Amino acid sequence: MRMWCQSCREEYKEKDAGTCKECYEEASETEEELKREIEDLKAKVSFLRLCPPVDPHLPNTNADLLLYGVSESHEEAKSTLTPAVPAHRAVLISRSPVFKAMLETEMEENKSGMIKIYDVSYEVLRSFVKYLYTAEVLLDEQMACDLLILAEKYQVKHLKSFCEKFMTSKVNNENAIASYAFAHQHHAKQLIEAALSSIIENISTLTEREEFKELLERDPRLVVEIYEAYLTRQVNTAEK
């Protein structure tokens, strides 16, 4: 008996529930993508939920805290402050357990209303604060690295995950080694897996690169892990 797919109207022979194999697989992928989007939205809502009411836009003149980026010049032995980025105490406390501990105790930052964050530019600091308010930020590869470092330092898990997903999507043959080392340094599991997979797939060419040799000198443990993962994949492939 001739059967027709209800989705694409193509003829098929299997006795499926009115759908050919291609359309069924496409629908399944779409369903999984929707599930991921829903989970992402739930996480975003949870991140943005606050106990006290706060203006959802960037902080204005009513903000009760000032954040400064600090860069240190070793040659001149002095520190330079970036322009201040205002923020509400309630937002920082609700987003970060580090800020919470800092601003609910007798620490100097709580008394002065000033928080100094070292080795961060004004642009990165402003993007960091913006994310704490909106859970949105425009990323490029450098900004994602800088914000992931800040997110780890202040335990803003939602931002760290956001940056890690972006960096994972950008892993390629050119940046796999650097991404792998960075991911290990900052405990970014998803990025570790993506970078390691890329390295293994191109190991014959990547091991000849200067950055691989530098990694061997700087952290031979990571190189051992790469070869162990490569050999494990070879064994599994042979068994199959």
From TrEMBL:
Keyword Disulfide bond: no
Protein keywords: Coiled coil
Protein name: BTB domain-containing protein
Organism for this UniProt entry: Dendrobium nobile (Orchid)
InterPro entries xref list: BTB/POZ_dom, SKP1/BTB/POZ_sf
Alphabetized PROSITE patterns for the sequence: BTB
Any Pfam family the entry gives: BTB
Boundaries of every BTB domain copy: 63-141
Coiled-coil intervals: 20-51
Pathway(s) annotated for this protein in UniProt: Protein modification; protein ubiquitination
